[in-house]
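Practice problem 4.
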């Protein structure tokens, strides 16, 4: 069986393009994971600060009043 140079070139070009596209998607997913990790860290920090604010407000307001007064 005889394969021309053009067919070999087309197969090599298709394989190279496929590898480039797959590696590009891999790189993009890696960057997205890094950015999502940074955003998750910011959310964790904000959640921690919000919890501290809630505790501070609860301390300012004092304990809840009871329906039945104790004597």
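Answer key:
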């Amino acid at each position: 069986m005889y394969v021309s140079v053009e067919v070999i070139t087309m197969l090599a070009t298709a394989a190279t393009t496929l590898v480039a596209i797959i590696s590009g998607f891999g790189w993009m997913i890696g960057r997205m994971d890094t950015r999502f990790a940074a955003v998750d860290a910011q959310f964790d920090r904000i959640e921690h600060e919000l919890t501290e604010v809630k505790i501070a407000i609860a301390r300012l307001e004092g304990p809840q009043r009871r329906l039945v007064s104790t004597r």
